[in-house]
Amino acid sequence: MNYLKQFIKTSGVFFIGNTLTKLIGIFLLPLYTSKINPESFGYYDLTISLINLVIPILFFQVWDGIFRFTFDYEKVADKYAVISNGIMIQIFGALLYSITFFVVTSSLNYSIEYKYLIFIQGVLFAFQYYYNFVARSFSKNTLLVATGLLNSIISILINVILIVIYSMGIESLYISYIVGTLIQIIILEVKVKVLSNFKVSTISISLIKKLMLFSLPLCLTTISYWLLSGLIRLVISNRLGMYENGLYGVTNRLSSIMVLVVNSFQLAWYEMSYSMGKEENKKSYYGKSLNYILKVILYIGSISLIIIKLIFPYMIAEQYHEALTIIPITFIGVLINSYASFASTLFLAEKESSKLLMPTLISAVVNVFCLFLLTNTFGLVGATISLTVAFFINGLIITIKLKKLYNIRLKASVLYGGVATLIISTFVFYYFKGVYLIPFILILTVILIYVFKDILITVVKLLKFNR
């Protein structure tokens, strides 16, 4: 099997369905920033950050386990046995989440705005993840892309209607997610038939233990990762205010453009790495893929940073323009984190998820220390610098472990060339604006074509072959 072609084709499918769809949501930022004030946007951003922490922990991140273990079986019945055992963990997680949510929110001395909407979003967040991974377990990527596209379109339409016509605030963001995701889950159930194929006879305590042993280290990693990436929102909200957290939230969404691109490759990489099984030369594919994704991150990230500077005044309302200062710092942190996230999948492919805990924990400790120190001294800029430094440490440790354990190395030409390009782009971001940015974008476009010429040729050949 030609894994490179498989990787490129699957990446293309996920890019069309996942990245382009999410980009539409990013283009709604002009609406959000003009109709929703930074304080409210900061509150919404904080609640989503807490959901991202709590849900994977209370649901034991079982979706990662079922996705990995289904690739150990070829028979459909055996795959559904894994999925059925995962459902039992999922149900227990839902019960645990419900109890935890209402006990905690009832014990607080202040009322939680949109409490029930937040609760429902948390439940659907967990089941959306589960059904998405089930679909991917059967390589139903087109189905996943189509339902994701439908979800996004529905969410966007509801957002526009509720904000523009009914003048609603951040509650529209919760409602649109709930409706869109619920419809997606229903369609996925109809197609992949998780409940229809659920059999009590296939429930195995032994298999549940294996799923838990694989997933639990990921839960610990999630806690560490939240201390690494999610804690910043809590610190900004408490020490600087919801206004500043709103600025950071908008900056983070603009920076997430790069995450969406990398995520497309990462989703494709999951499948390819798991399907390699026991192939002798799979480590060679690991190294090639890692260097390829690093090249994508650094070079496409460089041009994306300048494009963000160019479109920022037209996309973002004036009340958020203070966020412009922290965009390069946040963006560089996102790029480093995207690389680390992709690199970490190599450990999952080898069923060594526990190896991810140490780098995440060390970088999380660094972030906690620097976050309080730098935020007090430099405010919002200090908070973003702290996070970027922590991301760098995480990526560095993961890179060292890959070299030590699997002899996977980064090519000097890819690393140094990409970093130099990113440094120049950062300089351009701070010292140029308006039409003066366009020549730099054109130059970087030419560089991109040259750097990715081999991949572009392969893509063209694939398109011709599939006609």
TrEMBL record:
Listed Pfam families: Polysacc_synt
Translocase among keywords: no
InterPro entries: Poly_Biosynth_Transport, Polysacc_synth
Record's keyword terms, sorted: Cell membrane, Membrane, Transmembrane, Transmembrane helix
Cellular component GO terms held in the UniProt record: plasma membrane
UniProt-annotated location(s): Cell membrane
Membrane topology, from the record: Multi-pass membrane protein
Keyword Transmembrane helix attached: yes
Transmembrane segments: 12-32, 44-66, 87-108, 114-131, 143-166, 172-190, 211-234, 254-272, 292-317, 323-349, 356-374, 380-402, 414-432, 438-463
PANTHER family tied to this protein: O-ANTIGEN TRANSPORTER-RELATED, PST FAMILY PREDICTED COLANIC ACID TRANSPORTER
The protein's name: Lipopolysaccharide biosynthesis protein
Source species: Bacillus cereus
